[in-house]
Amino acid sequence: MEGLPDVTSFATKLKNTLIQYHNIEDDKWRVAKKTKDVTVWRKPSEEFNGYLIAV
After folding, report:
1. Burial category of 32 from C-beta neighbours within 10 Å (exposed 0-12, middle 13-18, buried 19 and up)
2. Which residue, 40, 38, 16, 20, is CA-closest to 30?
3. How far apart are CA 32 and CA 55, in angstroms?
4. What is the predicted pLDDT for the residue at 15?
5. pLDDT of 23 higher than 80
6. How far is the C-alpha of 26 from the C-alpha of 22, rounded, in Å?
7. Model pLDDT, residue 4
8. What average pLDDT does the segment 8-30 reach?
9. How far apart are alpha carbons 51 and 29 in whole angstroms?
10. What is the pLDDT of residues 32-42, one digit of tens each?
11. By the 8 A CB rule, do 7 and 13 touch?
12. 26, 36, 42, 44 - which has most CB atoms within 10 Å?
């Protein structure tokens, strides 16, 4: 069985990825759904097959 990954390295990579997602420019996002209370935005992911979602 494989050993556990380096937790500190994994946490740093995850933190940097989330910061990168947070800093994506507004013009890259498209409205996926809009109601009177909520707007859901999406952007094609560059890392996996699918979309990033922002609410």
Report:
1. middle
2. 40
3. 10
4. 95
5. yes
6. 10
7. 67
8. 91
9. 10
10. 999 999 999 99
11. no
12. 42
13 pLDDT above the threshold of 60: yes
Q: Which residues contact 28 (CB under 8 A, 6 or more apart)?
A: 43
How many residues in total does the chain contain? 55
Token pair of 21 as six digits = 């997602």
Q: Classify residue 54 by burial, with Cβ atoms within 10 Å: 0-12, 13-18, 19+.
A: middle
Residue type at 25 in one-letter notation: E
3-state secondary structure of 49: coil
User: Using CA atoms, how far apart are residues 43 and 45, in angstroms rounded to an integer?
Assistant: 6
Please check the confidence at residue 5 and state whether its pLDDT lies above 80: no
Tokens of 29: 């996002």
